């Protein structure tokens, strides 16, 4: 099969995966099942799609492949250098988050912020705290899990709108997750596009910082007439927050991500031992717990890598790129650089609209995005940034996304109420479109 071969049928396995994963979640949600979208784990939902892709490898390819050859191709995709690198980083990121949480680092970061926020600017302040924690932790879900309960406690003792507060927490989490050096979406987008972490970070700031400042300015106008009685959890030693800030500085300086994460784990354990009651003997158990927390995304990344390779081999990704280009050529007379930016953005936006998992969306569409970038001479940092940003926008606005569901459960409101208040993602969409229109040339 040549690299120019195309087949829309090759995308059907991806459609089957989306149908099973999303369809099951929507049905169970309608039946009132709690955490409906977690009842059928994504690594299980993808198995029928893999079987279909293996079958298609026998009937779609010009050269017929037997089962053994097809499985070899699947394993080749799973063992792709980028996929394996992502998986190793997932493990280290999970280990760091676990150790830092057990040592009290998360509570220290949150309480440090709460201690300096004037009561009139609680929504704005918690948006900033959520953004900082997510940037440090590299996970929007972990951030929402850490900050949302505290934010809900604030809502209970003020007259603040819980939906507004929930939207601020999710928005801040998406901001930090999108920028963090240890976020799985950052790792996936940079590895698939061949970009450097620090270059992608700087590029992302062009889109994310103006959006965050606009939203922050809006939140500042919201104040509470009720004075909270107690805004913090149990006192946490602020020294425990230092490992988070160390890894941000080291990552910005361009230190290898593996070294950054390993240093984060070591520093968190040492600070916890020195200034808290953390037992060094527990560090091995906590690291393994962090590995376990990354099990689903680890397995899914491997399997999606295999599925992607089969779809690429069968011409599915070429088909997708070709049709996005064709659609854009009908609505735009601008140059290739301009059109392909929108094509890459569309890949991230549309794929994640269906999957509701921004990391998976980036992995699935990464090869196509890279091809579009190379075709128009778009810098890897720009294509990585666009892919991450637009999947992030979708993730913050889909009511069946994990972030919206977790925030809704914490605040006792509906996911629709949550996503309708995630103003950061809405503003980020508008700002990103404007940036792409203005910056049409390198």
Mean pLDDT: 81
Query: N-to-C terminal Cα separation, in Å?
Result: 34 Å
The rounded Rg comes to 22 Å
Question: Major β-sheet, in short?
Answer: none
Shape: globular
Helix content: over 70%
Number of helices: 21
Q: Which blocks of ≥5 consecutive residues have pLDDT under 50?
A: none
Spell the H/E element sequence.
HHHHHHHHHHHHHHHHHHHHH
- Measured by DSSP, the beta-strand proportion falls in under 5%
Strand-pairing-aware structural class:
mainly alpha
> How many runs of DSSP E, i.e. beta strands?
0
Summarize, please.
The chain is mainly alpha-helical and 442 residues long.
Explain this structure:
- This protein has 442 residues and is mainly α.
- The protein has a domain at 83-293.
- Helices cover 75% and strands 0% of the residues.
- It contains 21 helices and no strands.
- The chain has helices at residues 12-30, 42-59, 67-78, 81-103, 105-114, 122-137, 140-156, 162-179, 184-193, 197-220, 242-252, 257-275, 283-293, 295-314, 316-331, 336-355, 358-376, 380-397, 402-411, 415-419, 423-438.
- Helix 8 runs antiparallel to helix 10 (197-220) and helix 9 packs antiparallel against helix 18.
- Residues 49-221, 244-435 form the Na+/H+ antiporter NhaC-like C-terminal domain.
- InterPro entries: Na/H_Antiport_NhaC-like_C, NhaC_Na-H+_Antiporter.
- It is a multi-pass membrane protein.
């Amino acid at each position: 099969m040549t690299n120019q071969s195309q087949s829309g049928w090759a995308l059907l396995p991806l459609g089957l995966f989306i149908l099973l994963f999303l369809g099951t979640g929507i049905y169970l949600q309608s039946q009132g099942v709690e955490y409906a979208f977690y009842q059928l784990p994504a690594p299980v939902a993808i198995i029928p799609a893999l079987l279909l892709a293996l079958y298609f490898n026998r009937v779609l390819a010009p050269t017929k492949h037997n089962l053994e050859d097809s499985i070899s191709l699947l394993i080749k995709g799973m063992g792709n250098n980028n996929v394996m690198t992502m998986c190793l980083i997932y493990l280290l990121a999970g280990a760091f988050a676990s150790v830092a949480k057990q040592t009290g680092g998360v509570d220290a970061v949150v309480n440090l912020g709460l201690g300096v926020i004037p009561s009139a600017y609680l929504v704005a302040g918690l948006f900033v705290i959520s953004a900082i924690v997510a940037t440090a932790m590299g996970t929007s879900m972990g951030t929402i899990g850490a900050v949302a309960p505290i934010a809900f406690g604030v809502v209970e003792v003020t007259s603040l709108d819980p939906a507004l507060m929930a939207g601020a927490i999710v928005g801040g989490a998406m901001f930090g997750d999108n920028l963090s050096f240890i976020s799985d979406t950052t790792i996936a987008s940079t590895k698939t596009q061949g970009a450097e972490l620090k270059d992608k970070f700087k590029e992302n700031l062009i889109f994310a910082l103006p959006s965050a400042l606009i939203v922050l300015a809006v939140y500042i106008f919201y104040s509470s007439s009720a004075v909270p009685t107690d805004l913090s959890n149990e006192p946490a030693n602020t020294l425990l927050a230092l490992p988070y800030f160390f890894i941000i500085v080291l990552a910005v300086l361009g230190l290898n991500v593996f070294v950054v994460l390993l240093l984060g784990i070591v520093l968190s354990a040492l600070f916890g031992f020195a200034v808290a009651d953390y037992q060094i003997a527990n560090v091995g158990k906590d690291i393994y717990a962090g590995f376990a927390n990354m099990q689903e995304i680890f397995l899914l990344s491997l399997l999606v890598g295999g599925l992607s390779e089969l779809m690429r081999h069968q011409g599915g990704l070429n088909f997708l790129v070709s049709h996005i280009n064709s659609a854009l050529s009908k609505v735009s007379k601008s140059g290739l650089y301009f059109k392909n930016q929108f094509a890459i953005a569309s890949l991230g936006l549309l794929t994640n609209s269906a999957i509701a998992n921004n990391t998976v969306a980036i992995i699935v569409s990464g090869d196509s995005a890279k091809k579009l970038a190379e075709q128009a001479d778009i810098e890897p940092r720009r294509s990585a940034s666009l892919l991450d940003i637009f999947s992030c926008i979708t993730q913050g606005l889909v009511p069946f996304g994990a972030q919206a569901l977790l925030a809704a459960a914490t605040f006792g409101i509906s996911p629709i109420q949550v996503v309708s208040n995630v103003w950061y993602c809405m503003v980020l969409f508008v700002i990103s479109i404007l940036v792409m229109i203005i910056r049409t040339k390198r």
